[in-house]
Amino acid sequence: MGSLSAWHWLIVLIVVALLFGSSKLPQVARSLGQSARVLKAEARGLREDEEAANQRESETSRPASDEN
Questions:
Q1: What distance in Å separates the CA atoms of residue 27 and residue 31, rounded to the nearest whole number?
Q2: Where is the composition biased (Basic and acidic residues) (predicted)?
Q3: What pTM was computed for the model?
Q4: What does the DSSP assignment read for 23-51?
C-alpha cells in the first residue's frame, strides 16, 4: 500500500473528467479550493485556541510568591 504512481493519478483524473464533464471541472476545482481554505482556517483557529488555553493555564499555575 504505497503511494499512488503517475498512472494511478492519470486514471483518477480520467474518471473524474468522465464523471463531471469538462464544463463542471472548473466549478469542482473552485469548490475544492474553497473547502481546503475553510479547513485550513478552522485548523488554525483550533490551534490558536489551544495555545491561548495553554497560556492561560500556565499563567494561573505560577506561584504567587512574587506578590509578597
A1: 6
A2: 44-60
A3: 0.54
A4: HHHHHHHHHHHHHHHHHHHHHHHHHHHHH
Give the Å distances, CA to CA, from 10 to 5, 34, 50: 9, 24, 40
More confident residue, 40 or 63: 40
Residue keyed to cell 479547513: 39
Distance between CA atoms of 58 and 62, rounded to whole angstroms? 6
pLDDT of residue 65: 57
For residue 25, count CB atoms less than 10 angstroms from its CB and return exposed for 0-12, middle for 13-18, buried for 19 or more. middle
The neighbour count for residue 16, using CB atoms within 10 Å, is 13
pLDDT surpasses 80 at 62: no
Amino acid of residue 52: A
Q: Whole-angstrom Cα distance, residue 37 to residue 2?
A: 27
